[in-house]
Write a structure and sequence with these properties.
- This protein is of the alpha/beta class and about 190 residues long.
- It has two domains: about 140 residues, Beta-carbonic Anhydrase, Chain A, CATH 3.40.1050; about 35 residues, no CATH class.
- It has seven helices and five strands, in the order H-E-H-E-H-E-H-H-H-H-E-E.
- It has a five-stranded mixed beta sheet, with helices on one face.
- The N and C termini lie far apart (about 60 Å).
- This is carbonic anhydrase.
- It is an enzyme of class 4 (lyase).
């Protein structure tokens, strides 16, 4: 059996047994918050449970390193949609200790790509097209600074309402302990 077979078999029973009923909620976050965090497997449930959130309380956006790589990319769009279309009134940006994007080895990633069939010519074409693969695939050296940089990018975005608090946190993926990086209430601007 493949992973997909396992998934589909489980889902058939999940629906037949009406397990989904325990997850029913609104598309609007009841705690009126949207959170950007990392896709790390250790944070699947921990990122919300350690903060006291239940299913439906918060919109969660996840990506590698909880990093906004472009001011007009999908992560920024998700945060803005959370605020303007889905009723969120606060943003939480939460990185984590021991993040795989902290000091990621881009040469090793490129090497693995090549081992899996990505041709040198493809990489060369991308680089000659102006794509900086070190930046695109790279991470960060300090998770706290990464959280601060993301907060600054959101707060200074031309489409962001600066009366919305942006909280910065770093979570320990082993214990769930959270470190406050920025209290968003201290930085809001009155309209």
């Amino acid at each position: 059996m493949t992973l997909l077979d396992d998934i589909l078999g489980f889902n058939e029973n999940f629906v037949a047994d009406k397990v989904y009923e325990s997850y029913e909620t609104s598309k609007v976050p009841t705690m009126k918050a949207v959170m950007l965090t990392c896709m790390d497997t250790r944070l699947l449930d921990l990122s919300t449970k350690a903060l006291g959130f239940k299913n439906g309380d918060v919109k969660v956006v996840k990506n590698a390193g909880a990093t906004i790589t472009h001011p007009y990319g999908s992560t920024m769009k998700s945060l803005l949609v959370g605020i303007y279309a889905l009723g969120a009134e606060e943003i939480i940006i939460m990185g984590h200790k021991d993040c795989g994007m902290g000091g990621i080895n881009v040469d090793q990633v490129l090497g693995t790509m090549k081992e899996r069939g990505i041709k040198d010519e493809t990489i060369s074409v991308l680089e000659h097209s102006g794509i900086d693969l070190n930046h695109f695939l790279g991470g960060f050296s300090d998770v706290r600074e990464n959280v601060r940089a993301n907060i600054d990018m959101v707060f200074n975005h031309p489409l962001f309402d600066q009366s919305v608090p942006i909280h910065g946190l770093v979570i320990d993926p082993h214990t769930g302990e959270v470190e406050l990086i920025q209290n968003g209430y201290d930085k809001v601007v009155s309209n």
